[in-house]
Amino acid sequence: MEKKRIYITRKLNEAVLAPYADLFEIRMWGKEEEPVPRDILLKEVKDIDGLFCMLSDKIDEELLQHAHNLKVVSNLAVGYDNIDLEAASEHGVIATNTPDVLTETTADLGFALLMATARRIVEANHYIKTNKWQNWAPFLLAGADIHHKTIGIVGMGRIGEAIARRAKGFGMNILYHNRSRKPAAEEELQATYVSFEQLIGEADFIVSVVPFTPETNKIFNKAAFEKMKQTAIFINISRGATVDEDALVEAIRTKTIKAAGLDVFEVEPITSDHPLMQLDNVVCIPHIGSASEETRTEMIRLCMDNIAGVLSGTGAKTAIR
């Protein structure tokens, strides 16, 4: 029986893929940190049954028209705004993602980013690297306490709840805003549901964990930053387009808010000359929320299992509904 063909849009560890070698004919783009060029991707999809893709790969009507045998698109991410779900459905293609397996790892990163920003860790490291540390002083690189402060979580999904559990360990007062209330989370975490306006006005730390939708497009804008405390610290581990970056730069420069920590950006990748990179009290990291060796390996396995499930007829484990 002829093997099903799949294409992977980044170079992955062969050892992780080895268990699937007997099931599929696997073709793979040869570079890990460079996306497959669009023209090559359009050629590669012509005869494949399954596509293993990344957030940077646009799965749209044009691609689907080229992919005559395609049955499944497996996205290495929780988010899937790179996939035209309506077009995929019209072409009979099942789209999948990787929820759950990255929840705790992403929450770890989100809280680490909050702590690094609040306590000026990156700035302090650079201070030594540039030989500025000559003497000790009482307020040298003094940051902000985290314990017993108020955290406001915008988006109380799996990752939001995991961040709240970490905040609880720091004795923080937990506010959250979500499309719907989460009574179970309120009881377990002593979290308080509030409006978006109340949250951004009262929280010492505002953490964005919302998916990107038309409603959340630039939800953190000039008006939102102006409602925050001057001592507020803003953290974004959701999607870059939920933030008006020009407004954020202005809010930092004018001391409308105190600091920001960002793992995601409106246009990625950013470079060292990006306006946000020019600000000492902004910590920028390169979209590494789920980037632990253990979690990325599990994400890859889930992507492959989703492809195997669809192509074998048993169904995907985590199809996007």
What does this entry look like structurally?
With 321 residues, the chain is α/β, with parallel strands linked by helices. The protein folds into two domains: 4-101 and 293-312, 3-Layer(aba) Sandwich (Rossmann fold), CATH 3.40.50.720; 103-284, Rossmann fold (3-Layer(aba) Sandwich), CATH 3.40.50. Helix content is 34%, strand content 15%. It has helices at residues 14-17, 38-44, 61-66, 85-90, 103-118, 121-129, 158-169, 183-189, 196-202, 222-227, 245-253, 293-312; strands at residues 4-8, 24-28, 50-53, 72-75, 94-96, 150-154, 173-177, 191-193, 205-208, 233-236, 259-262, 282-284. Strands 8-7-6-9-10-11-12 form a seven-stranded parallel sheet, with helices on both faces. A five-stranded parallel sheet has the order 2-1-3-4-5. The protein starts with a strand and ends in a 9-residue tail after the last helix. The model has no long low-confidence stretch (mean pLDDT 97).
